[in-house]
């Protein structure tokens, strides 16, 4: 984590090269979409907790993915048998950062949907249309 001269904060997390089987790992340019989702959920939980402690409510969020090497970034999902699948992946030579203004003190269900939407936007760039891990209740339901 780094704090910049303008007061913004950079938070980095490793989400690539995870174990894919008992004897194998994904390459550094391959990212399981659920790892992106979990990283974003943790990040957004940190924002909500910070807002509660500091009494700040609005945050500008910018999410990006960086990798090294010559291979394009590939975001993977799982098939109906829970095996890693890249058949819908769009190789990315550049990941466009996603920016969002977040009201961290809004009602829990609304915040949950912001987390979902940020995760969806994040994996959509790589051709993944469905968020697998973050499943808020319908917008009309009250949690």
Q: What is the CA-CA span between the terminal residues?
A: 33 Å
How many structural domains? 1
- Regarding quaternary structure, what we see is single chain
- Rounded to an integer in angstroms, the radius of gyration calculated over CA atoms is 16 Å
| Overall geometry | globular
Class from helix and strand fractions: alpha+beta
Total of DSSP H or I helical runs spanning 4+ residues: 2
Strand arrangement in the largest pleated sheet: 5-7-8
Biggest beta sheet attributes: 3 strands, mixed
* Mean pLDDT over the residues: 83
Helix content: 25-40%
Would you identify the regions where 5 or more consecutive residues have pLDDT less than 50?
A: none
Tally the beta strands. Answer: 9
Strand content: 15-25%
Question: How are the SSEs placed, and which strands pair?
Answer:
Blueprint: E1 2-3, E2 9-10, E3 19-21, E4 24-25, E5 30-32, H1 33-54, E6 58-63, E7 74-78, E8 84-85, E9 98-103, H2 108-124
Parallel strand pairs: 5-7
Antiparallel strand pairs: 1-2, 3-4, 6-9, 7-8
Helix pairs in contact: 1-2
Architecture overview:
The chain is α+β, with helices and mostly antiparallel strands. It has one domain. It has two helices and nine strands, in the order E-E-E-E-E-H-E-E-E-E-H. Strands 5-7-8 form a three-stranded mixed β-sheet. Strands 1-2 form a two-stranded antiparallel sheet. Helix 1 (33-54) packs antiparallel against helix 2.
């Amino acid at each position: 984590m780094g704090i910049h001269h303008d007061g913004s904060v950079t938070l980095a997390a490793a989400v690539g090269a995870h174990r894919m089987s008992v004897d194998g790992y994904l390459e550094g340019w391959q990212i399981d979409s659920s790892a992106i989702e979990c990283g974003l959920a943790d990040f957004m939980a940190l924002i909500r907790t910070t807002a509660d402690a500091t009494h700040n409510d609005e945050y500008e969020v910018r999410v990006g993915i960086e990798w090294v090497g010559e291979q394009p970034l590939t975001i993977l999902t799982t098939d109906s048998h829970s095996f890693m699948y890249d058949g819908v992946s769009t190789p990315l030579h550049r990941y466009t950062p996603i920016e969002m203004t977040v009201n961290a003190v809004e009602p829990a269900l609304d915040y949950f949907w912001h987390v979902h939407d940020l995760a969806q936007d994040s994996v959509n760039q790589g051709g993944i249309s469905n968020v697998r891990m973050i499943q808020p209740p319908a917008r009309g339901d009250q949690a």
